[in-house]
Amino acid sequence: MRRSTVADHPFVNAVRYALEYAGLGNVLAPFPIRRLARPWTRSELPPAGEKRIAPPDFIGVGTQKSGTSWWTGLIEAHPGVAQNLFKRKEMHYLTHFFERPMTAGDIETYHAAFARPEGMLCGEWTPNYLASPYSIRRLQQAAPDARVLVMFRNPVTRYESGFNHEFKQRFGGMLAAGVRRQVIKGYALRKESIWNGMYAAQCDTLVRIIPRQRLLVLQYEQCKARPTEMIARTYRFLGLHDSFVPEGMQTPVNVQRQVTDPLPDETRGLLTEIYQDDVKRLKRMFPQEIDLKLWLGFEDASAT
Length: 304
Hints:
Elements: H1 10-21, H2 25-28, H3 31-37, E1 58-62, H4 68-76, H5 104-112, E2 123-125, H6 133-142, E3 147-152, H7 155-171, H8 179-195, H9 199-209, E4 215-219, H10 220-225, H11 227-238, H12 265-285
Helix pairs in contact: 6-9, 7-8, 9-12
């Protein structure tokens, strides 16, 4: 089964940031990083050979730091699933069409990345699509028949993991604290991390655009507790035979180095309060899929 590997070392990050500040980032940045900055082009695609080009069969849209790398690996372990040409879980392509429309040529380029052997499924899972509602509209435009998956995690624990991830990605190579870092951390990064856990607010666009029969809602805590049952359910949703049992279902994937301090209890309680109403709405949206007894601090939200 494919495992995500990320170069994550203080020295490596320091060199990366030095190159950025020297103006060499666009030249030396690896393609996975450049893919976040702009849509890829057909010339950057690996050769498809005799593979069939078609829209993705499935697209995961959320949520960040909720086990999506783990679950994507289990999906791609199925013999009926092929990886996309980039062999990347996260494509980020649909996030680039906000200031400008997505053209027919853009859609053809997107489809070309999902060339696969005849009879096999292919897709992607970009967790920030859900947090960028316009991406859902682009998804429906580019892949109107694709099955859509979303996985939710306790929003407070997701916040802590997501904040650490984004802080490391943006500031992991800085050798000393500075005003710029503190401003971004305190204003932009904190607000972004809180918004990423406002699941119901993000799902307003999702459920308005994507028909319910094309949507699979998963809960990370249920998947951890009953992985065999939940991956079989996922396979059935995708139209795959569910008798296949992948190896390594409990193997940790994409474990991150901790660079931020643990949340104080008072802050954890404040986040729980902030998320209460949104969690209640999420439960009303997906009453069968979300078990609030598994989310510490939100056990009573299902009673209202």
